[in-house]
Amino acid sequence: MSELETAVHAALATVIDPEIHQPITDLGMVESVAVDASGVAAVTVLLTIAGCPLANTIESDVTKAVTTVPGVSGVNLTLGTMSDEQRSELKKRLRGGREDREIPFARPDSLTQVILVASGKGGVGKSSVTVNLAMALAARGRSVGVLDADIYGHSIPQMLGLTEAMPTSVDGMIMPVPSMGLRVISIGMLKQSRDQVIAWRGPILDRALQQFLADVYWGDLDFLIVDLPPGTGDVALSLGQKLPNAEVIVVTTPQQASAEVAERAGTMASMLEQKVIGVVENMAYLDVACPHCGQSHRVDVFGKGGGIEVAGTLSTRLGYDVPLLAEIPMDPALAAGGDLGVPLVATDPGRPAAAALTALAERLAGRKRNLVGLKLGVTPV
């Protein structure tokens, strides 16, 4: 191999696969590199599957990387497709020799912080909190995955602009869909049509969750944020068994009726030996500009005290401190961001609601993980 071809290989090592988040050279995607006497580099890159949805991104990144190599006068790029054997080898490499059905987040040595976002009832803005919290964590340099575990009422694809997205499958292993720095998976991405209704009973739900956790290649994550369905049903039970070291944030609103059912969601988590790390009060208040004094005044549209009540009740009931982590004010832009597919923290981080969610992300990102109560897979002798 000539010095110029070696330099091209080095440049290709800087190209990161947008789904797997590893260099294409490490993934065995670079089949050949040759540079002729005039400096034209002929490069063949193998895509994981035919019709790869991010082929254009890979083509652009490869061309850009090779073009910057001194001495290269042009790039002749060929995109091929891996064989079944190559895909199988890639899958084996990504699994690290582990069993296919193992959930990496359940391993005692997992460094990923799994946070389940729960609520006692629907309509409290749980999914909005999920996507904005995930986006704020990613903006702070954290590697973040988002799992939409709300099988019946999945809304994460809409909120992240992924209604037409389809995940890539490599030899039975599913690649999460990349979106604005996040890695995302939802049953909404696997349906044949957007209006298809999911009507599954418990055992099928359990298998779907197992697939999302074990068959999806999440890679190395700092955080996995899981959007739970409201209430205390099959999904919460199943995830309690599959993710024993997960932590829970309970989302509620100020009114007393919401607070009572939110307490049940926190109690359910404790029954499954998951730690409740705090409460988020959404739609806590409305800032209204006074026409008389010109100052901004807090208006408690839905009453007040629900969040602190839930935190106090759960602290007493569970026997440890469950703080009120955030009070998120009402903001029409928060809902509009979900409808448009771009979270508010990404479009207007200075707004009060976005600032409250950003502060929540900073609090979670800056804390030291407590090992008390975690299952470490060690048996005393």
Could you walk me through the main structural features you see in this protein, from its secondary elements to its overall organization?
This protein is α/β, with parallel strands linked by helices. It has 2 domains: 3-82, Fe-S cluster assembly (FSCA) (GMP Synthetase, Chain A, domain 3, 2-Layer Sandwich), CATH 3.30.300.130; 104-366, Rossmann fold, CATH 3.40.50.300. 35% of the residues lie in helices and 20% in strands. The protein has 12 helices and 15 strands. The protein has helices spanning 3-12, 55-67, 84-95, 126-139, 156-159, 202-215, 234-242, 256-271, 306-318, 332-340, 344-347, 352-366; strands at 30-35, 40-47, 74-81, 113-119, 144-148, 168-170, 173-175, 177-179, 182-186, 223-227, 247-252, 275-281, 286-289, 296-299, 324-327. The strands form 4 sheets. Strands 8-9-5-10-4-11-12-15 form an 8-stranded mixed beta sheet, with helices on both faces. The longest helix is centred in the last third of the chain and has 16 residues, at 256-271. The radius of gyration is 23 Å and the shape is globular. The termini are far apart. The mean pLDDT is 85.
